[in-house]
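== Polypeptide entry ==
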Amino acid sequence: MKQLLYAAVALACVAAPMAASAQPSERQDDRRELNEDRRDLNHDRRAAERDGRVGPGERAELNRDHREINQDRRDLRYDRARADSWRDRAEWRDFRGVRPGFWFAPGYGYRPISHYGWRRGAYVPVGYRGYYVQDWGYYGLRPPPPGYRWIYADGNFVLMAVATGLIADLVIHGY
């Protein structure tokens, strides 16, 4: 009987993380739905223009759909003023609010503020080069070019050349 109980507990411990990872998060579902809405809007726009004439009613409906999609996109983006835009994300799990003298690197925890003078053309200190931004699109950042990565640095986003640490761009107080 004990062995059966141990086997059931072991199976539950192994199966739970696999089941959790197999289910897409609500945010992923929302993002997928937004992409489907975009495709539908583009399809409707092409269909309306195919016959050569877009009536005022069709134009108004297309514009309304476009506005709704833009609003949905804004709702999905990170907004530090809205806790629901970041609270359920795994990298923000350890965030416990603002702490004087520290900055929070999502996924890496609290770090002391260094008051480093972040500017283009300077080099990122070695201690900061590993704090990579995993989902740059979520924060509204552009895709990094090949050989560059966005990093977290004292509450800023810094676009850094991976090989040299050269700062190519930065977003002050980005999150």
